[in-house]
Design a protein that fits this description.
108 residues, 17% helix, elongated
């Protein structure tokens, strides 16, 4: 019996990588995530006297795209977005039949 951990080393030249070598466009679902900030609007405008701190609203936006279509989801937080996206992927049987490719801007 052989004990231990084994792994293979693969040398990849980043200049020669072609996504078609490892992605099947017929069975790939792209999931793109971004946080969008916007200014909170007030019902009434102030008189302009004194400056108060500006209020900001944050929304999580995700686009799920594959050969069957493109879907855009907007939620008020990343946690709630995660629940929605996982549910969508399960209900539409995407987790079982597709490879997932995630894109994120990496901010925060």
């Amino acid at each position: 019996m052989i004990k231990g951990t084994f792994c293979a080393t693969i040398n990849i030249n980043i200049n020669n990588v072609n996504p078609e070598d490892y992605e099947d466009s017929n069975n790939t679902t792209n999931v793109s995530q971004d946080d969008v900030l916007g200014k909170a609007q007030k019902e009434k405008r102030g008189t302009g006297k004194g400056q108060k701190s500006k209020k900001v609203i944050s929304n999580a936006v995700v686009q799920v795209e594959n050969k069957n279509g493109s879907y855009i989801f907007v939620r008020e937080s990343a946690n709630k977005m995660f629940e929605l996206i996982i549910s969508f992927l399960i209900i539409n049987n995407i987790l079982n039949k597709h490879q997932l490719v995630f894109f994120s801007d990496g901010a925060r």
